[in-house]
Amino acid sequence: MKYEVVIGLEIHAQLSTRTKIFCGCSTAFGAQPNTQVCPVCLGMPGTLPVLNKQVVHNALKMGLATQSHINRRNIFARKNYFYADLPKGYQISQFELPICEHGFLEIPSEGGVKKIGITRIHMEEDAGKSIHDEAFVSKNETLVDLNRCGVPLIEIVSEPDLRGAAEAAAYVSKMRQLVRYLGICDGNMEEGSLRCDANVSLRPFGEKKLGTKTELKNMNSIKNVEKAINYEIKRQADILDDGGEIIQQTLLWDPDKNEARAMRGKEDAHDYRYFPDPDLVEVYIDEKWLDEARKELPELPDKRRQRFMDELGLPAYDAEILTASRDVADYFEQTLAVSGNPKKTSNWVMGEILRLSKEHNLPAGALSITPARLGELILAVEEGEISQSAAKTVFEALVKEDAPVAQMIEKLGLKQISDQGALEKIIDRIIAENPKEAESYRNGKTKLLGFFMGNVMRASQGKADPQKVSTLLREKLSS
Amino acid sequence: MSNSSISIQAEVANGTTTVEERVRLFLDEARRQKDLNCFITLFEEKALEQARRVDHKIKAGETTGRLAGLVLAVKDNIVIKDTPTTCGSKILNRFDSPYTATVVERLMAEDAVILGKTNMDEFAMGSSNENSAFGPVKNPHNSDYVPGGSSGGSAVAVAAGLADAALGSDTGGSIRQPASFTGTYGIKPGYGRVSRYGLVAFGSSLDQIGVFASTPAITARVLEVISGHDPRDSTSARVDVPSFSEVIRPDMKGMRIGIPGEYFQKGLDPHIEKSVRAIISEMEKAGATAVPVSLPMTEYAIAIYYIIATAEASSNLSRFDGVRYGLRADEPRDLGDMYARTRSEGFGEEVKRRIMLGTYVLSAGYYDAYYNKAMKVRRLLKEGFDAAFGKCDLILSPTTPTTAFKLGEKTDDPLSMYLQDIYTVSANLAGLSAISIPAGKDERGLPFGIQAQAPSFNEQVLFNCAQFIHNLKLI
Q1: For residue A294, is it within any domain?
Q2: Burial class of residue B353 in the structure, from the number of CB atoms within 10 Å of its CB (0-12 exposed, 13-18 middle, 19+ buried)
Q3: How many angstroms away from the CA of A148 is the closest CA of chain B?
Q4: Among residues A366, A385, A412, which one ends one of the domains?
Q5: Contact at 8 Å (CB) between B246 and B5?
Q6: Hey, how many other C-beta atoms are within 10 angstroms of the C-beta on A203?
Q7: How many whole angstroms separate alpha carbon A367 and alpha carbon A353?
Q8: CB A421 within 8 A of CB A403
Q9: Total domains, chain B
Q10: B-chain residue closest to A81, CA distance
Q11: Is residue A301 part of a domain?
Q12: Is A50 on the interface with B (CB under 8 A)?
């Protein structure tokens, strides 16, 4: 393609505070329409907003995690526009002096790690939801659900630093990982707790001036972010190739039809008439508050991944997967604290734990088997108490019912046979039962060791210590 | 017991009369003087019920609240749960509030009886009470004249003897100007003194709820009850509330009275000027010193007030859109049509004028020239007052340049109507406390007031001054 792609993203992240930004209503998702509302978030005449401080605190953490400049003086502003799901006729947001400015986020890209600038992060309230397209809504009617109205958001505006759909997807993915690490947003794109709008434009390589942009909305997964942007890049490129002009407009992505359509209604240039909200007082973030937020910051994913490689000697692949979510990384480290073996622990967590977590749709930390228990199990294998294959059986049993590992091994009768005498007895019997194979082995067909191993293990019901069996077999077959 | 310092309360407490009896008399009187058009809603049964509850407490010898025995009216832009709030507008047609304003909760908690909701200029925009969808309120001193506005109904309720006290709201003079026109006491406390939670907003940074009454003591008593920090209003101040009514001292000794030259210029009725100067000399005789002070930003006050108040109003009134409550235009073509027609039909002329003004001053390209500049001048104006209060304890001036004007006299001339607020808007812009004190009557028998202004939370000095003037028995 002969065009350079220029993308800037606006991400709206719903902050997972217990209550809304300006009233005491719950923020929980999925309740019956219009049940999580009060006079304040309904914008009833005479009501006033009172700021939920946790919102500022969470935004502050996000600013620190993206190396942003923190504006100490915070002013809320009214963004005025009319819409049926905006009860006050204005949205309380920030305009001049957003809480964070000039930050960055590092993303993996083709040319290695790339720094994406963050223009600003500001706090605001979410609007309600207008429902027009559902089957139960009659024609020419719109229903409004105001449960979401007043749920706290941060809007994260990136610089136009992204150069393709893949980078945009990587950026969203990184951002989602970050808000989850910080514990400030659940990052669920399907439920809309993380929403992404993309400004996309093309320009000939070498051109400094930005091309006319379009805004893409309604991309409810990272996959759709990538698809929608690719779709839009192609659409714009085709128009430019034909000598046409891009019209500045807002497009809605339709994930079912895999296409973007211009939004209904005409695109007026909005004049939001921002001005400081006289109902709210200035919020000042002092050194003490900043320190508290800083202290609460967890080790961030990039740093943690590096440490897993450098200090624990884990392969990059393992480190990447383990640190993808804070929950899994925490689980891993808690298991490691008991097991003492990083690679073995990594194998278990990447294998069984991730599988279980996916199967039950639960975070690792919420699984029935605790990290300490898994650590104990890994240790039992390490110390030769049970074989690797018996450990899988014990693991499944522990998932169903928690018990000390030693007790469970006992209960299942899976204690490994390491006793020389007992093992020799089985081995002697197997060799005696298979004289032809023993003969062949002695004549140089050493590949038959596997055959004998299998038989011995079977005969011991998997309880024989494979390492010891292998040593003994070799001795006995060569004599 | 402290309630006995107010004679009505003493009579109720000692059994000379009952609260129920008083409410019945007020209701009869309200019906008899219906032509004044001062109530939009009268709570007949509910008020009697409240009265009986208080009477029962008194009879049973239980401790009663600080307002026991008093019957109050409330301006119809302050909400009470499950009752209509109209703001004097058609757009709030059949609107019942789902909650109660903090001030009303506080009144009730102190055993006040609420008699009804008073007429007002639509959304508190006006200085004559002619901008009400429920018709104008008449001045009880002469029904050809306006009572002032926007809290005209509340002022008249007190002036005509239809309530012991009334709550109003004051954004640029909406309590003090009608107090002046009706010969009542009307106080606008310092910004943040009283919670605005439940007051339908006009200009949020200027609005304050205040009190009308016929004596300084009742005014003070009601104000001390409704004052104080409210966690539901971030702009309400965390400042202690003195028991204003308990410590009124009409003592002028050592008081420094600031006289602002800017408030005694052309346009001021000579009769009012003479009376105000006479009161000042009475104060000097009683030991006060008159100090000339300068408030150089006064000439810009009206201009910046009408920029800031309308800007805030244009945003505050956006919620009246026909979506959730109140009026909705019939058979709208689409959402835009519904908004346009609902708001065109629902709002009166003055409200529409101010919404347009406010929208204009906030628009892209004009924001700096109007709103931003107005905010800068507002800061200068406040600094001017700070400097003046370095030299005096309170500032005295007329409340209004004239006495009441005739109904219909200024309705076609919004500018001359706006100039009604010339002496009062500054207190709102600077967040000061200010009171209008009855100071006499003109040759036609129409009353006028003298205004005292003090720093934000020094309402006590205003009550002291009011009591001193009250004792002069000018009316």
Answers
A1: no
A2: middle
A3: 16
A4: A412
A5: yes
A6: 16
A7: 8
A8: no
A9: 1
A10: B318
A11: no
A12: yes
Are A236 and A345 in a shared domain?
Answer: no
- Give per-residue pLDDT as tens, A456-475: 888 887 788 888 888 888 88
Residue tagged 């009400």 (tokens): B132
DSSP state string for B243-302? -GGGG-----TT-EEEEEGGGSSTTS-HHHHHHHHHHHHHHHHTT-EEEEE--TTHHHHH
- Per-residue tokens: A398: 């522990």
- Say yes or no: A96 contacts chain B, CB-CB below 8 A: no
Q: In this complex, how many residue pairs, one in chain A and one in chain B, have their CB atoms less than 8 Å apart? A: 99
Residue B78 falls inside a structural domain: yes
Instruction: Say how many CA atoms lie within 13 Å of B108 toward its Cβ.
Output: 16
What is the rounded CA–CA span in Å between residue B127 and residue B260? 23
* Tokens, residue B46: 């509910």
> At B241, which CATH number?
3.90.1300.10
Q: Is residue B240 part of a domain?
A: yes
- At residue B1, the pLDDT reads 38
User: Is residue A293 included in any domain, yes or no?
Assistant: no
DSSP 8-state secondary structure symbol assigned to residue A247: P
| Integer CA distances (angstroms), A157 to A75, A196, B160, in order | 18, 10, 60
Residue A452 is part of a domain; what is its CATH number? 1.10.10.410
Q: Is residue B19 domain-resident? A: yes
Please tell me whether residues A76 and A96 are part of one structural domain: yes
For residue A353, the enclosing domain spans 310-412
Residue A84, in any domain of the structure:
yes
Where do the DSSP E strands lie in A159-209? 194-204
In the predicted structure, residue A218 carries a pLDDT above the cut 90: no
Asked if A46 has any chain B CB less than 8 Å from its own CB, the reply is yes
Contact A378, A405 (CB under 8 A): no
Query: Is the pLDDT confidence value at B256 over 60?
Result: yes
> Which of A479, A445, A452 has the alpha carbon at shortest distance from A466?
A452
Which residues of chain A have a CB within 8 Å of the CB of B77?
46
What Cα–Cα distance (Å) separates residue A419 from each residue in A426, A461, A463? 11, 15, 11
CA dist A59 → A15, A294, B64, B188 (Å): 8, 12, 48, 39
Structural domain count, chain A: 3
Nearest CA in chain A to B203: A278
Residue of B nearest to A85 (CA): B323
Q: What is the ipTM of this complex?
A: 0.96
* Cβ count within 10 A of residue A102: 14
pLDDT tens for each residue of B334-364: 899 999 999 999 999 999 999 999 999 999 9
B 319-338: CB under 8 A from A: 319-321, 323-325, 335
Give the domain-ending residue among A368, A390, A412.
Answer: A412
| Residues B437/B219, Cβ–Cβ less than 8 Å | no
Q: Are residues A386 and A429 in the same domain?
A: no
Distance (Å, whole) CA A403 – CA A424: 33
Label residue A205 exposed, middle or buried (CB < 10 Å: 0-12, 13-18, 19+): exposed
Distance from the A246 Cα atom to the nearest Cα atom in chain B, whole angstroms: 26
Instruction: Tell whether A29 and A128 lie within a shared domain.
Output: yes
User: What percentage of chain B has pLDDT greater than the value 90?
Assistant: 94
Separation of alpha carbons B436 and A333, rounded Å: 72
